[in-house]
Structure formats: C-alpha cells, structure tokens
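Researcher: Good morning. I'm working through a list of sequences from a screen, and I'd like to move beyond sequence-only analysis. For each chain I'm collecting a predicted structure so we can compare shapes side by side. This is the next one on the list. No need for commentary yet; just the structure.
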Amino acid sequence: MFVVEKYSGNKEDNFNLLIKQLEALIEDETNVIANLSNASALLNQFLDRINWVGFYLFDQNKNELVLGPFQGLPACVRIPMGKGVCGTAAKKRETIVVPDVHQFPGHIACDANSLSEIVIPIVKNDTLFGVLDIDSPEKNRFDQGDQQKLEEFVNMLVNYL
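Model: Good morning. Structure tokens for this chain:
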C-alpha cells in the first residue's frame, strides 16, 4: 500500500525520496502500463505548480508519439516526431526545458493553461521508448535541478521497462 509522504526536506532530498518511492512502486511489477501509471500519479502527487504530467510512447510503425498514462486534463493523442516540445525532444533524444511555451516554435497547445514545460526522452538500449512530459501553468517553473532529478527519475524507470 502506498502512503503519501510529506516532502519536508530540501528540493534535492525530496527528489531523492521520490526516486526511492518510484523504485518501491515498480520493482516487483512487470507491466509497463501499470508502472507508467503509477509513475505519473507519483509525480502528480509530488510536484507542485503543475497542471499535467504523463507519458507519450513512441510508435515505430507510424513514427509518432502516442498518448500514454497521465494525470491531468485530456491531452493530444498523437504527436509527430519533430513537432512540438515532445516530438522535438524525442527526435533529438535530449531533455528540453521551455520557460515560456509561447516562445517555442511549433508548440502544440493541448492545454491553453500551460505556460512552461519540461520533456525528458525515455531511451533504453539506444531505442526510443517515449517521453515524460510535464506542464505548468506558470512561466519558468522548471530549472536545472528539476531537469537533473527528473532525468534520474526517468533513468530509474528505464531500469524496469
């Protein structure tokens, strides 16, 4: 059973606790959808000042990202590779932090309330699996520390995919 933890330490300590909680949630489960669902719920519970968190999964046959488990309002279902923040991060296979989504060329506005975004590609054995996408209703929500720890979160997740 999962118990909500109070995150009362500093930001780095809180993220470290989050990553340990992720491992505890997924270490004995082999179903990818179940693990991604719990990961998105855990992030939604942990992160403040966000309005959407979830996964887009790579469909090799159609060369696009398809909506996966998430927390938030209904979202865009398909994103072509190289389009928007998610498609660009997936194509480049690198994290993209966008302080103001209105300044990102080709931004896909699934939720008009989103003002900043971070997208972390999920790659296992040199194969693109998908992306973790997190949106915030405030500009400049995500910083270097968020990027580093969310990349660690994704790396932990990759170990169990």
